[in-house]
Amino acid sequence: MTFAQIIGHDRQKNILQRALSGGRLAHAYLFAGPEGVGKRLMALAVARVLFCSAGTGCGECGACRKLAHRNHPDLHVLEPDGNSIKIEQIRAVQRDLSLRPLEGSRKVCLIEAAELMTTAAANSLLKTLEEPRGDTLLILLSSQPQRLLETIRSRCQLLQFPRQPLELIRANLQTQLGISDDEAHILAALSEGSFKKAFGKDRQLYLEERCTLLKTLTALSAGSILPILEFAEQLAGDKATLPDILEIFQAFYRDVLLTLHGRDTQELVNLDLSEKVRRVAGREDVGTILGKLEAVGNARRQLERNLNPQLVMEVLLLRLAA
After folding, report:
1. Is the CB of residue 41 less than 8 Å from the CB of residue 57?
2. Of 111, 153, 228, 275, which is least packed with CB atoms within 10 Å of its CB?
3. pLDDT computed for residue 166 by the predictor
4. Strand residue runs (E) in 71-115
């Protein structure tokens, strides 16, 4: 993907394009921002210009086609091995980067989820950042840059990538997918500013399964434990989508809170479930909804700390059913 094809992030594009045209690229960058907002696409656009035989990222030359298929010999992409990036991975890429470029004038290394480097791996990478080769560009991508060693952050030029505006995502969803206004609104609102989430696998979850999940959730009763435990087991069975499901729950209770405050219906995420939102608001008050929002937030943090998913869901659902 070229710079022109990347949606949004005009300021970041301008900074990088000026650096490329002026020959003033830093030896290392830290692209920081939420998942799926375009950090990787921007990094690959930089690599495309550097490798392109025309120097423009034309998309037509052999180098651009190789990059598009991720088989350019001077591009190295380092991804986590399981839950971390290990020192052996860093050492392997360091050996590759110590050699001269095979086809282009530079080697480019992208490190995905850089915050997952072990301490040993980060300290090993530090040596490369302190004594960079002139023909090597390192781009670290991170959604949690605060977890990186300060010594790593200080040796990279930081470029922040904020969440994409809701209206921009909604307009592109309608243009590219041809979906309805309400569907585009729901996807954009639940995507948290991420094109990857809006256009990715979560679409079915957000548009179809969401209604079933919220129907089951709002039917739970504190006096009936078995349905709560069964629903908790169901939710915990797919750990990969659990954070997205909690996001759906959080958005729903946010809608209820807005309704209790008399806000306009168009401010809701769940426009298609506005009647259900009003019914739930009729039996709740601001205090109980704030408590439920806090419970969902706690559950999300507990899952990030790798607590037992089923236990987390059981405790959460008992609080939400109260």
Report:
1. no
2. 275
3. 87
4. 75-78, 107-111
